[in-house]
Design goal:
Helix content is about 35%, strand content about 25%. It has about 300 residues and is an alpha+beta fold. It has three domains: about 1-60; about 70-170, no CATH class; about 185-295, PDZ domain (Pdz3 Domain, Roll), CATH 2.30.42. It is elongated, with a radius of gyration of 40 Å.
């Protein structure tokens, strides 16, 4: 009887432990669910808060101000690197739908060399109030008349769709200038020193065709980069001949301004206005030398 009572007590104790274990497992399971829910809620609430903050910042961010390109017109018109120029907005300039024969184009001159270093200088006489000149590189659109597809000494080709136009360099104004401007351009007074006629300089700058046609200028390439222009076919009695320059000379600088492109060359020549002394750095027969010119 006593043994039976002990067994009954042991069975009841085991049964109580079993229910306690089940209760603990269920409690832990639901506690884990609640903890997971709280973690997920906190994460999503934080993301929503960050998104809302970002949205507010985007809404309140100040709009960027865009500047009208006409704001830069004064830089071009005052042009600290050469003669004053006029800024013409695209809306008042060339018609993008233009086509047909480029009869109004005047080819002022060319600079020949590798394609990426070849240039042509044009005037477009069809533009009212626009008598300036522009430099165009190989492959560029020339006043929307066509693509500059070939550049040679004395002529170029423009490609307009299936049509190709050949345009020669005009020499009419050069002949007129030579007939109206007698006298030497420069007078040699020393081995590397010259006196320049100020009037002739002004005339040459007003007709830059002479600058481009009195000699052939080829880009001088050294170590993969351009360093000035090599002179060839120097015209006897022309501008460069009067300056004492020869075939094979490499023009490097004018008054310390590097001549690294046709634009830079034109700016260097324009810088001669108003100066009383000019220094021209050249390479002759492999040696560097400086030519000095006094303007009177």
């Amino acid at each position: 009887m006593f043994n039976l009572a002990l067994k009954s007590m042991a069975f009841n104790r085991q049964k109580a432990f079993y229910f306690i274990n089940v209760f603990l497992v269920v409690s832990i399971f639901f506690s884990g669910l609640w903890l997971t829910r709280d973690i997920i809620s906190i994460v999503f609430l934080k993301k929503d808060s960050q998104t809302a903050d970002m949205g507010d910042k985007i809404k309140t961010a100040p709009a960027l101000k865009t500047k009208d390109i006409m704001n830069y017109a004064a830089i071009l018109e005052k042009n600290p690197f050469g003669s004053p120029m006029k800024f013409i907005p695209l809306s008042a300039g060339y018609d993008s739908r233009r086509g047909g024969s480029p009869a109004s184009l005047i080819l002022v001159g060319t600079v020949t060399g590798p394609k990426n270093l070849s240039y042509a200088i044009f005037e477009d006489k069809s533009q009212s109030g626009f008598a300036g000149q522009e430099v165009f590189a190989y492959g560029k659109n020339v006043y929307n008349y066509g693509i500059l597809s070939r550049i040679e000494k004395g002529w170029v080709e423009l490609k307009q769709g299936a049509n190709t136009y050949k345009i020669p360099v005009t020499e009419i104004r050069i002949t007129e200038m030579e007939s109206k401007a007698p006298g030497a351009f420069a007078q040699k007074v020393g081995e590397k020193e010259y006196i320049l006629d100020q009037k002739r300089i002004q005339e040459a700058l007003n007709t830059p065709e002479q600058i481009l046609t009195d000699a052939r200028l080829l880009p001088n390439i050294r170590d993969g980069r351009q360093e000035g222009f090599t002179m060839s076919e120097v015209k006897t009695g022309g501008l460069y001949d009067s300056l004492g320059l020869r075939n094979g000379d490499v023009l490097l600088k004018v008054n310390r301004l590097e001549i690294s492109s046709p634009d830079a060359a034109m700016q260097a020549m324009s810088a001669l206005k108003g100066m009383d002394r000019v220094h021209l750095d050249v390479i002759r027969n492999g040696s560097r030398m400086t030519m000095t010119y006094q303007v009177k």
